[in-house]
Write a structure and sequence with these properties.
Elements: E1 12-19, H1 21-26, E2 32-34, E3 42-52, H2 60-66, E4 75-87, E5 104-119, E6 126-127, H3 131-138
Parallel strand pairs: 1-3
Antiparallel strand pairs: 1-6, 2-5, 3-4, 4-5
Length: 146
Amino acid sequence: MSLLTLPEGDWIRGITIRQPWATCILAGKNPENRPVNWPWRGWMLIHAGQKLEQPALRDPLVATAIRGRELPLGAVIGVARLTDCHPDQGPEKCTSPWAQRGGHHLVFDDVQELALPVNATGALPAWKPKPDLVTQVLQQLPDFRP
């Protein structure tokens, strides 16, 4: 894919997520929990941050999700479409075992894992990726359609 085939405008962002949570998203974790609302919707590069939260590895839900997977750090490891962000609505409406109470839930669809992590520097809370990074990532996803 060349830069000429990328859409114009503000269509993709990056989200930095600490491991093992970033890899859990690739394995089906939904939602991602954040302390504040995110008004932006669209495609997101899933960036694994530089830090690994060791205590999370003892959580049975996490251990099952990441079994047999690498936990790359400081790299884009996937792409997903952010379709919703809503405040926690309690266990009756937010039934996912991944949903934290009292926060905001980022809902991802069309999650696609990269075969090879692409080294990158992320930022918080969300960031605009440079076109060359987007190109490197999308070269691994030949069927991707924004």
